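From the methods appendix. Each design record in this collection lists the tokenized structure first, followed by the designed amino acid sequence. Records were kept in a plain field format so they could be parsed without special tools. The example shown here is representative of the layout used throughout.

RECORD:
FOLD TOKENS (670 positions):
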């Protein structure tokens, strides 16, 4: 049996007080040094060992701190302060089993201060035992209802269990007790989890105003805005956040990424340039720079970027990813796969899966390719915005429009007087049907001005009240909406006198009633391609996931959306006749002049050979805001025609859905 250490002498007690005073003034290192000397000279009493352990942990030296705290706990097992510090230190060091074992031998009810309950809750949270954490913090707030920190922790424990309403309740109480920014941020997160997104947005904006030097509320506001599909709000928040914390590279990367997602390539590249100026080896910035070069049709700069990454000693994984991008451009498929093998899964996992699929496809390993594309889509489907639910919402809205649109209802529409308007045509077709190649050909004509996938027609549709609002339009309404449309177009692309405006957006396919109501004589160019090739191409493409594109994450939803979209188009075209000019992708590839010359004539445009120089046109146009950016700068090729046949086994589950359209569009064998 060991004899207890003798108590501190009066001089040792005085020294202990001096050490505590030194620590309270911020000189933790000095306090630790004097405390360790006192520990050695005082015969190692528990009070000194506990103090040394606490000071070591405060300095981040957990290993030393835990050693001293263990000694103190053995000598003074009833000392609550020592037990609490040891529980927290073990948890912070990842020694969670030891922390739990220690907790199992302590009765927190014997501590009237509640510190042990708080420490037990902390251990439980670190062990991800959120039910236990909730019970611990509930015990604290029952005894100490004014403890804001424990209300906050209780709210977080409930949120971690998916109890959003309970989390909001606890965090609201915490925020009422304390104005601290972290509590408000936690409350905003819980509000969003509880489907109270607008309250979360308002709270984050309020928090950003209350803490003008703190970038975190703005970063959270940007993330929530992105999730809500509000990119302008997200970008504005990130820009302000970067202004508050300009040295924060993560914020700058988030800003560059959001600008990139909104096709502001100049803005994204400027931010990346700032990062690389200070950190030329920064892996994520180098990767984003490589992706920007691809999207800006400057792939000839990729080798220099890769060499710069190597010269600056960047992370080998970033070099490998850039090498994979270069291999894709140069069609070195086996080397591309070898490069991807050196890229960790946490780096660009979605794009890496897509690249792997493209490499396997190029090598003829179609099963491996399909598996890679499935992985890409599974990763996309896991996005917090719940893309598959958003996709279902899109199809449900289309079904509602389809049910509304019938001959009897169209006969009730108020007549609208025909008015001469600016020359405009609409280029549409299901995504991946060749619309980008076709708009590039059209863009090559000097008398054509292309508006590529921009919102004017959608904004007018919303202002008109959707399909349901078309029936009651008056002449004045139609005039107002046409003027609104042209004003929105002018803001994006100032009018070139005499030029034909071609408004290209694939899913204008679903806006034919609006087009015919406002622009009854406008030519409509319908891009067609084999339905199986279209659906496969949609499935293997990494789209930016708006509600419509989210349908392409599974073959089943892609095929269903295709069939439903064309059923609606066909009904609308029969009820609302007007000039429609179909252009088959396969024909355009096989005989471009013979296919396009009649179209240009129908559009009132004289034929010019320059329209066939699509590669030159594509390079001049800069950023291509579609998933086809990599294809339209290449020579016309036939390898994408009939690709579906190489994946016929994988397409079998959707063949019955697509077969009627294969026959309808003349692709069935004769």
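DESIGN:
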């Amino acid at each position: 049996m060991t004899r207890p250490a003798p108590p501190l002498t009066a001089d040792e007690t005085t020294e202990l007080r001096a050490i505590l005073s030194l620590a309270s003034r911020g000189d933790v290192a000095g306090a630790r040094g004097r405390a360790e000397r006192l520990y050695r000279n005082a015969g190692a009493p528990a009070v000194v060992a506990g103090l040394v352990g606490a000071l070591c942990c405060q300095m981040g030296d957990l290993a030393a701190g835990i050693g001293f705290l263990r000694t103190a706990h053995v000598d003074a097992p009833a000392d609550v302060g020592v037990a609490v510090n040891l529980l927290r230190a073990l948890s912070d060091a990842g020694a969670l089993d030891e922390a739990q074992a220690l907790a199992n031998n302590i009765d927190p009810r014997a501590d009237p201060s509640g510190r042990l309950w708080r420490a037990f809750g902390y251990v439980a949270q670190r062990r991800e035992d959120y039910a236990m954490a909730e019970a611990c913090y509930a015990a604290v707030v029952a005894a100490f209802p004014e403890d804001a920190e424990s209300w906050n922790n209780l709210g977080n424990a409930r949120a971690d269990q998916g109890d959003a309403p309970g989390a909001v309740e606890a965090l609201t109480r915490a925020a009422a007790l304390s104005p601290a920014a972290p509590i408000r941020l936690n409350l905003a997160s819980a509000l969003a989890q509880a489907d109270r997104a607008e309250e979360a947005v308002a709270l984050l904006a309020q928090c950003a105003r209350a803490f003008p030097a703190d970038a975190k509320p703005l970063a959270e506001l940007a993330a929530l805005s992105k999730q809500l599909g509000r990119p302008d709000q997200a970008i504005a928040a990130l820009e302000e956040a970067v202004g508050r914390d300009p040295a924060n590279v993560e914020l700058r990367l988030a800003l560059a990424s959001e600008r990139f997602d909104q096709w502001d390539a100049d803005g994204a590249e400027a931010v990346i340039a700032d990062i690389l100026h200070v950190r030329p080896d920064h892996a994520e910035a180098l990767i984003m720079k490589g992706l920007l070069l691809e999207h800006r049709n400057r792939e000839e700069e990729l080798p220099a970027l890769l060499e710069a990454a190597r010269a600056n000693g960047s992370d080998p994984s970033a070099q490998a990813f850039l090498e994979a991008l270069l291999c894709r451009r140069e069609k070195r498929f086996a080397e591309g796969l070898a490069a991807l093998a050196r890229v960790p899964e946490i780096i660009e996992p979605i794009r890496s899966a897509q690249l792997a699929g493209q490499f396997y496809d190029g090598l003829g390993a179609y099963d491996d390719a399909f598996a890679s594309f499935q992985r890409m889509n599974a990763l996309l489907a896991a996005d917090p915005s719940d893309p598959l639910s958003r996709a279902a919402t899109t199809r449900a809205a289309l079904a509602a429009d389809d049910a509304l649109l019938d001959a009897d209802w169209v006969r009730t529409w108020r007549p609208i007087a025909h008015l001469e308007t600016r020359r405009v045509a609409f280029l549409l077709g299901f995504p991946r049907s060749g619309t980008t190649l076709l708009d590039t050909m059209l863009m090559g004509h000097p008398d054509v001005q292309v508006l590529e996938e921009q919102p004017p027609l959608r904004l007018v549709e919303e202002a008109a009240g959707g399909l349901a609002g078309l029936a009651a339009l008056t002449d004045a309404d139609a005039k107002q909406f046409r003027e609104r449309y042209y004003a929105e177009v002018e803001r994006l692309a100032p009018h070139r006198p005499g030029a034909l405006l071609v408004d290209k957006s694939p899913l204008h396919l679903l806006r034919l009633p609006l087009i015919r109501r406002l622009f009854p004589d406008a030519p409509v160019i319908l891009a067609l391609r084999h339905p199986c090739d279209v659906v496969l191409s949609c499935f293997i493409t990494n789209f930016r996931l708006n509600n419509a594109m989210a349908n392409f994450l599974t073959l089943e939803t892609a095929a269903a959306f295709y069939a439903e979209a064309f059923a609606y188009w066909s009904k609308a075209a029969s009820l609302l006749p007007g000039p429609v000019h179909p252009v088959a992708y396969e024909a355009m590839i096989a005989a471009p002049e013979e296919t396009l010359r009649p179209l240009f004539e129908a559009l009132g445009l004289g034929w010019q050979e320059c329209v066939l120089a699509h590669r030159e046109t594509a390079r001049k146009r800069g950023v291509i805001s579609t998933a086809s950016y990599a294809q339209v700068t290449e020579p016309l090729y036939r390898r994408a025609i009939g690709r579906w046949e190489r994946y016929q086994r994988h397409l079998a589950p959707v063949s019955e859905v697509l077969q009627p359209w294969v026959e309808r569009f003349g692709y069935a064998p004769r």
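APPENDIX NOTE: Residues 555-575 form the longest helix (21 residues).
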